[in-house]
Amino acid sequence: MISNQLHEIKESLKESVELIAVSKTFPVKAIQEAYNVGQRAFGENKVQEMMEKYPLLPKDVQWHLIGHLQTNKVKYIAPFVKLIHSVDSLKLAKEINKQAEKNERVIECLLQFHIATEETKFGLDLQEAHELLNSETFKEFKNIRFVGVMGMASFSEDLDLVRNEFKRLKSIFDQLKKEHFSNDKSFKEISMGMSGDYKIAMEEGSTMVRVGSLIFGSR
Ligand SMILES: *Cc1c(COP(=O)(O)O)cnc(C)c1O
Questions:
Q1: Alpha helix ranges (H) inside 103-158
Q2: Per-residue model confidence as pLDDT tens digits over 32-55
C-alpha cells in the first residue's frame, strides 16, 4: 500500500532530506492517495503528463519537473512548477527566465550534471556549468534562481561506482557553492538518489531524494 510504503521510506530518511515522490506513469488516484497521508512534493519527467495531472489535484501539490525539458515546453509549466531539476543549458535557462517573468514569478531550478557512465544521460559537466554561471547573459536573469544541483547515477549493481558518482556530484556542488554562490543561502540542494540507491545518496550528502517505484510499485 502506498501509505505504508511512504511511511517506511520517510522513517529511513534523515530529517534534512526531502522526499520527492516520483509519480510518472502512475494515475492521479495514486497521487491522491499519497497526498491524503501528507505527501506534497511529486516528480514528473514529462511536461505533457504533468499538465494532465495538475488540474486534477489540489493546488498545494508541489510539482517537480525531473526529466529533460525542451525549451518550447517551458511555457506550459511556468505558471505552477515548484522546482525544475533538469536545467542543462544557457538556452533553457534563458527561456525559463523569460516565461517566469511573464508569470511574474521566480522559478527555482537545479543544474543537472552528467555523473553516470552511460552516454545517454543528459547533463552538464563542471566546465559548462562555470561557463553558464559566468556568462553575462545569465547575470541579467532576474526570474530564475538556481538552488542547487541534480544528478543520476549509473544503473549498476556496482555500488562503489554509484557511491563515487554521488561523491562527484557533492564535490561539484561544493565547488559551485564556493565560486558562485558563497553568499547565497538558497543554493543548498543536492538532488540525488532514486529507489535503488537513495540510502547511498543520503550518506553522500543528498538533500532531496527522488523515489518512485518503491512508493508506487513497478512501472
Ligand atoms: C523515474 C525517475 C526517478 C525515480 O525512479 P525510481 O527508480 O522509480 O525510484 C528519479 N529521477 C528521475 C530523473 C527519474 O526519471
A1: 126-134, 136-140
A2: 999 999 999 999 999 999 999 999
Under the banding of pLDDT at 50, 70 and 90, the label for residue 212 is very high
Q: What separation in Å is there between the alpha carbon of 102 and the centre of ligand 1?
A: 30
- Which residue has its alpha carbon closest to ligand 1 atom 6? 212
Report d(CA 174, CA 186) in Å as an integer. 14
Of 128, 39, 43, give the one whose Cα is nearest residue 85: 43
d(CA 111, CA 87): 5
Q: Ligand 1 centre from 108 Cα, in Å?
A: 20
55 Cα to the center of ligand 1, angstroms: 23
Band the pLDDT of 118: cuts 50, 70, 90: confident
Ligand 1 closest atom vs CA 211: 9
